[in-house]
Specification:
The chain has about 250 residues and is of the alpha/beta class. It is built from 9 helices and 7 strands; from the N terminus they run βαβαβαβαβααβαααβ. Strands 3-2-1-4-5-6-7 form a 7-stranded parallel beta sheet, with helices on both faces. Strand 2, helix 2 and strand 3 form a beta-alpha-beta unit. Helix 1 crosses helix 9 and helix 4 runs parallel beside helix 6. The chain starts with 9 loop residues before the first strand and ends in a 7-residue tail after the last strand. About 45% of the residues are buried.
Length: about 250
Amino acid sequence: MNSFDLTGRVALVTGGSRGIGAAIALTLAEHGAAVGVNFVSNEEAALRTVAAIEERGGRAIPVRGDVSDKDAVARFTGAVSEHFGPIDILVANAGVGKTLEIEETTEEDFTGLLHNNLTSAFLCSQAVVPGMRARKWGRLIYVSSGAAYNGGRVGLHYSAAKGGMEGLARAYARRLMAEGVTANCVAPIRIETDMIASVSADELGPPPPIGRAGHVDEVASAVLMLATNAYMTGQTVHMNGGIYFN
């Protein structure tokens, strides 16, 4: 018996065109899920991710849409459901993070990032939860950040948004566990992505105690575990190479 089998399941990965999101989309597809690869502007990257999935025998479609726009969320979740069937697995991965010092952070910066990183996760969740409840099966998986725990380097706004995402996951977990729906987080930090590659070594600081940065596939494997585990809910899987313990 393959405990990681997602055959017949439908997944939506927001921000799924590159980096961690693309690795998650590929991993879920490799284990049988049909995947909607959400993107907002980089269609070329989304098409590459879809092509990579199809080359490995999987099923995927690209779906454009701003996760912070309620109408756009309704359109792209609807497109995935129309093509593959009802969404069983939501991976809320999309987000932004402009580095700001305390004195630079305006109210507009703070509320804007909350909207893009936290409200967006709420909007996507609200779009798929009714169907999950009706079918008595669902997985809500939020890609948080170690910044919710150690304060991070991006800024107050980013740490607050990611902390809020974890509270959102636990709130859904509490209310939906009796209906076959789980809600969990993965909190990566120092993962090798394009974003990290653009940051100087001085800004990044020393490597994690494990001696290297993490790989996107390692984050994706944690998401796969959460997607296939019916007993774990309201939890956070920390992917940080020993930077902190929880």
